[in-house]
Structure formats: structure tokens, C-alpha cells
Design goal:
Number of strands: 3
Low-confidence stretches: none
Largest sheet: 3 strands, antiparallel
Strand content: 5-15%
Structural class: alpha+beta
Order of helices and strands: EEEHHHHH
Mean pLDDT: 83
Distance between the termini: 74 Å
Length: about 130
């Protein structure tokens, strides 16, 4: 439906999923009201279809996400030693990679690269060769 004027402000109304939506654009411009209606429809459609714009999350480096996770982990649990150790290892090797670039191939490469290190660390620790 087209925007309509109520006093000095423009409003828009439409039906979405059987619900009547009538909201103010909080603007005295009809063009802004049309754009606000389109934007509101998009928001409702995205929410209705469970579509999230996660672009900002996908272009973050893994190291940044690990650091953020550890901050929350330390607040929830008393001992974060193991999490710091395990995620520190991942962060050292893959920390500079963007989340969007991490795929099965990269995870398998990390496992093959680190497996000898982990075995070597366990053997030296178990034999008292530290």
C-alpha cells in the first residue's frame, strides 16, 4: 500500500503474514516513507524466513573470535587453563585466517600439521624429557 500522511508525518500500512502493520516513518518526506516501508517489509521477511545477515561474523579472523570466546569462558568458569591451551594452539596456527576461508581442507591440514607436535609433546612429557 502507498504511504499516507497523518498531520505532518508520513505513515505506511500493509499486511504481512495475515497481520496488519501500520507504522510511522517519523519523517515529513514521502520518499523517505516509501523507503522505510520497503526496509520494514525486508526486515519482516528476513525474520519470518529466519535469514540473518552474518557477513560481519564471517570476515572476522579466527584469532579475534578465540580471544572473545576466552573472555566469556573465563567469566563463566574458574579454570580456563585447558581452554586457553587448546584454543591457543589453534589460534597460533589458524588465528590469522578469516572464518569464511576455513573449510574442511584447512581443518584437515591443521590436524595433519599438528598431530606430530602433539604426539611429540606427549612422548616427551610422558618420558620426563621436558
Amino acid at each position: 500500500m502507498a504511504p499516507f500522511q497523518r498531520g505532518k508525518l508520513w505513515w505506511y500500512k500493509f499486511y504481512f503474514a495475515g497481520q496488519f502493520i501500520c507504522e510511522s516513518s517519523k519523517s515529513s518526506s514521502k520518499t523517505v516513507a516509501k523507503n522505510a516501508e520497503q526496509q520494514r517489509r525486508r526486515e519482516l521477511e528476513a525474520g519470518y524466513n529466519n535469514i540473518k545477515d552474518a557477513r560481519q561474523e564471517r570476515v572476522r579472523p579466527l584469532g579475534e573470535i578465540v580471544a572473545e570466546y576466552l573472555v566469556g569462558y573465563r567469566l563463566r568458569y574458574r579454570s580456563a587453563t585447558f581452554a586457553e591451551y587448546a584454543l591457543g594452539h589453534v589460534s597460533r596456527h589458524l588465528g590469522g585466517e578469516m572464518i569464511i576461508d576455513i573449510d574442511e581442507r584447512m581443518v584437515l591440514g591443521y590436524a595433519h600439521m599438528c598431530l606430530p607436535d602433539l604426539i611429540r609433546a606427549r612422548l616427551t612429557k610422558g618420558c620426563g624429557l621436558e
